[in-house]
Design brief:
84 residues, 3 helices
Length: 84
């Protein structure tokens, strides 16, 4: 595992150290690794949502009405329930 030294303001350092006191994290490095993992997951979710939004925009404007969309959704639910 690689080592990295980081500088934190005193308030942030105290907060990180406080997270280890209840036993959830073994040490400060565990806290930082967990924060990075969470940020990576968040970034992946945002990128996925952006791809979906881009696909939606690229697909153009639908000529279907809200009633058409609702009827299609209800038909899919009915088909799923019938198959179950």
């Amino acid at each position: 595992m690689a080592t990295m030294n980081i500088s934190l303001p005193d308030q942030m350092k105290a907060w990180v150290e406080e997270q280890t006191k209840d036993g959830r994290y073994a040490n400060s490095s565990d806290v930082i690794r967990d924060l990075i993992r969470r940020e990576q997951i968040k970034a992946e979710k945002i990128a996925h949502m952006q791809r979906l939004a881009d696909e939606g925009r690229a697909s153009g404007i639908s000529m279907r009405t809200i009633d058409d969309i609702k009827a299609d959704a209800l038909a899919r639910i009915a088909a799923r329930d019938a198959a179950a």
